[in-house]
Specification:
The structure is a single chain. The chain is of the alpha+beta class. The protein has one domain. The strands form two sheets. It has a three-stranded antiparallel beta sheet with strand order 1-3-4, with no helix packed on it. The chain has a three-stranded antiparallel beta sheet with strand order 2-6-5. The longest helix has 18 residues. The two termini are 26 Å apart.
Length: 138
Amino acid sequence: MTREGMYRLIQACVEGDIDYVTEEGISIIQRGEHGTNQLSPVLDALMDRYLYGAGRDMQLSVRSLTTASGVRTDETVRALLALTDVYLVSNHIEERLLTVRHIELDSSRGMTVHVTLCAWLAFHLEMVREAAQLRVGT
């Protein structure tokens, strides 16, 4: 996939365009109804975390994700669950966009979520990060 094609697909993910198909035949499919339209800001916040060094496997406080996405806490949790039902499909291969490994509630009622981005998304975000580092010269 070309870099431009990858950027278009990631942009379609961020914008919640679930009917997008790339020239290479990769499509986005969302299964299930989750009653939220806040997928884009939450996914964008997760991708920012990755780009700033969090890695593919992230353990985040829901409060920090809520602040970063600008979405209410209940909508953030709904969006995370909805994002687990988004699949990238290509040549009979399906991959979840992300997986929520677990959500913990501590004694002070703070929630922590353990999220893993799919390999495809992590690979392409890594390309974005490397390109940005080359432009900056680090």
